[in-house]
Amino acid sequence: MLNINQSLLLKSRHILSSSLSINRFLNNNVPSITKVHREVYARLYPTTVVLPDGASINIRYHEPRKIIKLPLDISLLSEEERRIRLERRKPKRKVKITETIEDNFNAKKYLKYIKK
């Protein structure tokens, strides 16, 4: 049996919880702005894996990722394909276009239109 103090304590908790309109269950993940820092996730997430040849596979992954792209092994490519891939990695040079405009404007020709 409960003694009188314990029963009063239970009644006061019940009254307090019923008087509040919203019960909030707060934990460390509620105000998360960044990812949830866990080593092991509780479920598996649908993820697309893109293979080096361009094929894609849908898998269940332990971290919430949308897509995973596997790296390409350059040593398996031909010499020409390897050269093309390496050139794509380099920064592109900007082409400077210089135009010469003939300027034959004469301001003295329009002085007669200016009012003094």
Q: Overview of this structure, please?
A:
With 116 residues, the protein is of the alpha+beta class. 23% of the residues lie in helices and 13% in strands. It has two helices and three strands. A three-stranded mixed beta sheet has the order 2-1-3, with no helix packed on it. The longest helix is centred in the N-terminal third of the chain and has 16 residues, at 4-19. The termini are far apart. Mean pLDDT is 77; it is low at 16-21.
Can you give me a brief rundown of this structure?
By secondary structure, the chain is of the alpha+beta class. It has helices at 4-19, 79-89, and strands at residues 45-50, 56-61, 67-69. A hairpin with a 5-residue loop joins strand 1 (45-50) and strand 2.
Helix content: 10-25%
Kindly estimate the percentage of residues that lie in beta strands according to DSSP.
5-15%
Helix-strand sequence: HEEEH
The span between the termini is 110 Å
Largest sheet: 3 strands, mixed
Structural Rg: 36 Å
Shape: elongated
The computed structural class is: alpha+beta
Treating each run of at least 4 consecutive H or I residues as one helix, how many helices? 2
* Physical arrangement of strands within the biggest beta sheet: 2-1-3
Report the count of strand segments. 3
Task: Name the average pLDDT.
Answer: 77
Ranges where pLDDT stays below 50 over 5 or more residues in a row are 16-21
Give short descriptive properties of this protein.
single chain, 116 residues, alpha+beta, three-stranded mixed β-sheet, 2 helices, 3 strands, 23% helix, elongated
